[in-house]
Amino acid sequence: MTKDKLETVKDLTNKLLELMGSKAKAEVSFDKENEAFMVEIKTEEEVGLLIGRHGETLKAIETAIAMMLKQKTGEWARVVVNVGDWRQKQEEYLNNLADQAAQRAKETKEPQPIYNLSAAQRRIIHMALSKNQDVTTESVGEGEERYLVVKPKKIASN
Molecular function terms in GO for this entry (predicted)? Predict the structure, then answer.
């Protein structure tokens, strides 16, 4: 990962924030494990504004930066934007949701659907439950109708 690309992502992000009328500033690093540029937007007053309803503004900023980077470098790169500790709180919430669904599936022996998740949110739940030997996870459906199902694993009877 070149220092130039990190600077490019930082410059593009700060330019976008400026165009949005924001006083926030960006710090950028590269996460080798996830092969993604990690953009941390620093602000005191504008946290809620930059996150938006259910993180929609945050996702839009992410998409815009990725597209601007593609225009500038000719290559697609994964960009993950965080404001405040929204991502950590979101992941914590999804891990709790995953644990609750797994517990219900185990107790009721019934599949537990979880609706209204983005692909990234489904991925977090799949990952959270991948080490759980009592349940399996599966994404079902297409497009906007796609949802996740937590199923109890069949226990072999003796």
Answer: RNA binding
Averaged pLDDT of the chain = 92
Q: Which fold has domain 89-152?
A: Ribosomal Protein S8; Chain: A, domain 1 (3.30.1370)
CATH number assigned to the domain covering 3-84: 3.30.300.20
Residues 80-137 have pLDDT tens digits of 999 999 999 999 999 999 999 999 999 999 999 999 998 889 999 999 999 999 999 9
Round to whole Å and give the CA distance between 95 and 90: 9
CATH 3.30.1370.50 region(s) of the chain? 89-152
Q: Who's near 34: CB < 8 A, 6+ residues apart?
A: 78, 80
